[in-house]
Design a protein that fits this description.
With 86 residues, this protein is an all-alpha fold. It is built from 5 helices and no strands. 60% of the residues lie in helices and 0% in strands.
Amino acid sequence: HELERTKNQFARDYILGRQTVQDKANALGHAFVLHKRDLSTADGEYDIFMNIKPADVQRVAKTYFTPENRLVMHILPRGAATQGAK
């Protein structure tokens, strides 16, 4: 359900992000710079994102969401760190 919702949001943003000539130029510039001057990729990302399956998300999550890649932060109230040092 969450993947479908995300795809719907992506599709909406994708369409809204190509309404003006400037938006279209930005998409072409993105393809030119990031995809090795291949302007055909300007619309290729849509197909890639819309074809993502739950198994793809799980595979990537298992690859990158590991204990070795974890960062734990402890947020203390202002002044709490200096009070403990006394």
